């Protein structure tokens, strides 16, 4: 216990561990959002959940309650529902609907904070940017250990997201790639999608105090996108995305220490560096695409399915020796099959 506590007491260990757990929790869900082409919903949810937190505070008068997590999740689902409602009206496209909904909900949250919660720790800058450098100072007792609150929170959320992906892997895969087939098998792809986005909302709330919404959105979108450029298999995409998120946490922290810059911003920039590497050297990157374009094209196969018309009274295809009295012959068909009908007629 003493050795583990000694590790947890080191700020660098706690900061990197929190960043890695946020990255894992976000990347597991972000993989399916990227494949569903709904990645920008994570940005909308990460902003609009502030409204759920504010409403929960106004109802309870405190932030030390699980209701603010429930309120945030409901606000995220409301964002998705309103976006889908606007998109189905066919008056605006889906991306425009996202741009209409989440600024309105975020602005309403900021207005409520200014009117009714001025003296409460609900700083919009902290929600957006966070400050992971001080996350190790807020600790809770876990048996004989003192653990950073954000570290414990993100560990639980990451395990929940991992369990969700593992136990519903087939359902998530089928509903992502072929929703109609999923419905034919009795699944509910819409319900699965809402459950996925509900976990995104909960993960965003857990990441607020530590890393802020911007780094959370970067972890949701960038590592899965980089993994998408490296592999064609879903389980490898999930694994590589988590590995990139962990690597970005280490690289970002080292960069921030070396140049005395924001740790969260450095981690977000590190994810962009990994994306640039994948875009350049990945299986579906620029170099691989260039090699495929430069490769000589395969010679065209001979068209054995063409119909040729011979001279009157006899037909055939050159090289096959097929002839007939009807004046036509289909190339590639053996003589026995061509002559069989005429023999039967006789």
Protein described:
This protein has 346 residues and is mostly helical. It has a domain at 2-212: ABC transporter involved in vitamin B12 uptake, BtuC (Orthogonal Bundle), CATH 1.10.3470.10. The chain is built from 15 helices and six strands. It has helices at 2-8, 11-35, 40-60, 67-88, 94-116, 124-129, 149-167, 169-177, 179-184, 189-208, 212-228, 234-259, 263-281, 286-294, 335-345; strands at residues 139-142, 145-148, 307-309, 315-317, 322-324, 328-330. β1 (139-142) and β2 (145-148) form a beta hairpin. It is globular and about 80 Å long. The termini are far apart. 38% of the residues are buried. Residues 312-346 have low confidence and may be disordered.
Short description:
With 346 residues, the chain is mainly alpha-helical. The chain contains 15 helices and 6 strands. A hairpin with a 2-residue loop joins β1 (139-142) and β2 (145-148).
Layout of strands and helices, then pairs:
Layout: H1 2-8, H2 11-35, H3 40-60, H4 67-88, H5 94-116, H6 124-129, E1 139-142, E2 145-148, H7 149-167, H8 169-177, H9 179-184, H10 189-208, H11 212-228, H12 234-259, H13 263-281, H14 286-294, E3 307-309, E4 315-317, E5 322-324, E6 328-330, H15 335-345
Antiparallel strand pairs: 1-2, 3-6, 4-5
Helix pairs in contact: 2-7, 2-10, 2-11, 2-12, 3-4, 3-5, 3-10, 3-11, 4-5, 4-10, 7-10, 8-10, 11-12, 11-13, 12-13
